[in-house]
Design goal:
Helix content: 55-70%
Distance between the termini: 66 Å
Number of strands: 2
Oligomer: single chain
Number of domains: 2
Strand content: 5-15%
Mean pLDDT: 80
Number of helices: 4
Largest sheet: 2 strands, antiparallel
Order of helices and strands: EEHHHH
Amino acid sequence: MNNTIKTKKCTTCGEVKSLTDYHSNYTYCRPCKALVNAEYKSKNREKIARSNNKYINTEKGYTKETVDAIFQRARKIKAIRLVKNGFLNALEKIFWLS
């Protein structure tokens, strides 16, 4: 078996690191990528906010919380209807739940 560890030299910091320290085909390591991302985010806060706002206001952009809230309201309404129709009482009688 070949026990050699494959390495690559980061183009940003110049350190030689194993391939596990890199995202797929990037030429810079994960820590350098994190620094690049942080720098970009700090310089472009308004641009990112506009982009996020534009996406959230599209049909695809419903956030998980919004979708979850919609389903949660639907579950509450369904439960109320079942109680009003006596469905839960019937189940209790059938399965001796009370």
